[in-house]
Amino acid sequence: FERDLLIERTHAGLKSAKAKGMQLGRPVATGTRDQVQLKKSAGLTQSHAAELLGLSVRTVKRYWNAKEAQQ
């Protein structure tokens, strides 16, 4: 019973936030693509760039060969 009330309140809060135009979810990381491209142009390896930037290797790989036009 209590769980149902919690779920109901959560859904009501999300619906209210969406109606107010609030953005939900994790914020977009800004500048990550540019930082990775700078490290790439400096001749660093993907693993070394990840270590320097404090990112996972997977994240660096995602942006390593990304098109400049895509944002």
Description:
62% of the residues lie in helices and 0% in strands. It has 71 residues and is mainly alpha-helical. The N and C termini lie far apart (45 Å). The model has no long low-confidence stretch (mean pLDDT 89).
Major sheet: none
- The number of distinct β-strands equals 0
Strand content: under 5%
- Helix tally? 4
Provide the residue-averaged pLDDT.
Answer: 89
- Give the uncertain stretches in residue-range form: none
Q: What integer value in Å does the Rg equal?
A: 19 Å
Class derived from helix and strand content = mainly alpha
SSE pattern, N- to C-terminal? HHHH
Helical residue percent? 55-70%
The coarse overall form would be elongated
Distance from N terminus to C terminus (CA atoms, Å) equals 45 Å
Annotation keywords:
single chain; 71 residues; mainly alpha; 62% helix; 0% strand
Write the layout of secondary structure elements.
Elements: H1 2-19, H2 32-41, H3 46-53, H4 57-64
Helix pairs in contact: 2-3, 3-4
Short recap of the structure:
The protein is an all-alpha fold and 71 residues long.
